[in-house]
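User: Structure tokens for both sequences below?

Assistant:
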Amino acid sequence: MDKMPDIGTRVRFTREDKPERTVTGTVVTHYPSQPFYVDGKKVVPDDAAEIKVDSIPGWWPYPDYDTFCPPIHELEEI
């Protein structure tokens, strides 16, 4: 995605380096990027959105949570 998805939007996340790790879910929170400086150079990270997944897969790295916060460029609307 190129812009922040609306809260409630259904999305698919596919991990770039492991495309078999794909989940679907719903956007629940927005995390706009906050610029910061490193060695005098401005760094602008990607916007991110918290996603509540539909179901937790076996490889899920967050055992106590059903949400995670990927950068929006890794999401696609479904």
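Moving on to the next sequence.
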Amino acid sequence: MRKSFAAVMTTLAVALAPILISAPAHADTPDCVTKSEFRAVKKGWSMKRVHNRFDVAGRLVFQSGTYKSREYRPCRNPRYSYISVDYNRGRVYSKSAYFN
């Protein structure tokens, strides 16, 4: 009885693991980007991964060929702060921010 229960539970855990691991993150701030969210983004990340991390797509401010520059609204003091991420071929090329 215990062996069959353990086997069922193991099978269930293996079956549900991809669903639980790949669940999308939900930020506390769906319309702006926090400093910790910005710091988490690394060079080479895809634009989709960045947008999932920020929970906002930002706005396109420049595009030339495969190069895109997007700005995102910072949560802290958005009037005097900024967040910018540059992408080349859909991957983070550089990022910059000023938090006032």
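User: Anything stand out in the second?

Assistant: The chain has a mean pLDDT of 84.
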